[in-house]
Specification:
Elements (H helix, E strand, L loop, with lengths): L2 H10 L4 E4 L4 E2 L1 H7 L2 H4 L3 E4 L3 E5 L5 E10 L2
Antiparallel strand pairs: 1-2, 1-5, 3-4, 4-5
Helix pairs in contact: 1-2
């Protein structure tokens, strides 16, 4: 699954979360509009309610890309 797939899923399901990259909170819509295509194609995994992490070339979870936060 790609980062784009995860963000589109959050968008279509109207999931009420913010995605924090360590410096800023983002909506899925904003990331879909602003991230470069290369980053959106990155393989990723979402642990619901916790984080979105990249999947490295070996097929293992890599670094956390975004922590999920409930919208207030």
């Amino acid at each position: 699954m790609s980062l784009r797939d995860i963000l589109v899923s959050l968008q279509q399901n109207n999931t009420q979360v913010l995605l924090n990259d360590g410096s800023k909170d983002w909506d899925a819509d904003d990331l879909l509009e602003t991230l470069p295509e290369l980053k959106l194609k990155r393989s990723a995994y979402m642990q619901p309610g916790m984080y979105i992490a990249e999947i490295n070339d070996g097929g293992y979870l890599g670094r956390v890309l975004y922590k999920l936060k409930q919208k207030a």
